[in-house]
Amino acid sequence: MNPQLSIPIVAVVLDLILGDPRWLPHPVILIGRMIAFLEGLLRRLIASERLGGIVLLLLTVSLTYGIALAVVTVASAVHPSAGIAVSALMAWTALAARSLHRESGLVAAAVERGDLPEARRYLSYIVGRDTADLDEPEIWRATVETVAENSSDGVIAPLFFLLLGGPPLALAYKAINTLDSMVGYKNDRYLRFGWASARCDDLANYLPARLTGLLMVLVAPLCGYSSRNSWRIMARDGRNHASPNSGVPEAATAGALGVQLGGTNSYFGRPVVKPTIGDPVRPLDRVAWRGAVRLMYSAEGVLLAGWLAAITVWQYWR
Length: 318
Prior knowledge:
It is a multi-pass membrane protein. Keywords: Cell membrane, Cobalamin biosynthesis, Membrane, Transmembrane, Transmembrane helix. This is Cobalamin biosynthesis protein CobD. The chain is mainly alpha-helical. It has one domain (about 5-315). About 70% of the residues lie in helices and about 5% in strands. A two-stranded antiparallel sheet has the order 1-2. Helix 5 (about 95-110) packs antiparallel against helix 11 (about 285-315), helix 7 crosses helix 8 and helix 8 runs parallel beside helix 10 (about 245-255). The longest helix is centred in the middle third of the chain and has 48 residues, at about 135-185. The protein is globular and about 55 Å long. It starts with 5 loop residues before the first helix and ends with a helix. The relative contact order is 0.12.
């Protein structure tokens, strides 16, 4: 096997075993600091907020890609094995399956203990909605929704870009994702300044979100669920979301699990009514959460296996 082909495999295995160790400086933290610094600088230098936001997007993504590529190039020049090792470590930091499982698991464990205040606190770390007044069913709904949505943003999308263009492209995607989470808000401060970042995030996630939905449909039987219902709900309710992308994996997950997602959420004290996704055939509970996690891991495994199979066939026939 070409040593380069081992990079995604090693990255996925490291993520599954170790997740995001707190002792390891994470590139997303460094990207976030760069964004904060550039935002302050560009707001002072460029009068037009929309133009400043465009420059922020271009600088952040190009610097992230360029620095990652330079590090890999230098490491490879020292020794080919060093280049592979550095690339694998970079790729590992772009994936978040184990982290998503662990963080959502903290919520699940707190609910199981009957400690709803603790569950709400853990949940507030992984969702954007208000959590202070959520009851148990709403806590489970929010947990399943964030696992479903982040199965695309945190797992399939970075793996897709890793397979497409290596660690530099995967980290460039993470830069776009981080930009959206920091400046992609529709409020007075970021409506114009964050416009470019929000639109770029929508574009970057368009294919991965739909790939995630299709993978969920494909792996549903492996997890004991219905592919037919997953496809039916994805086709019917995939657009029932304010995001052009998030509704697709949420609908595929809801259909497979036989649960209903969506509905009313509260943001900064204001209720926001959203369309529902799926049918309430089964309750939202620990079983549904575990099912969403199984779908996430299975989709990741099938994507990696499919890529390896395609590469093997291509090398055999070329």
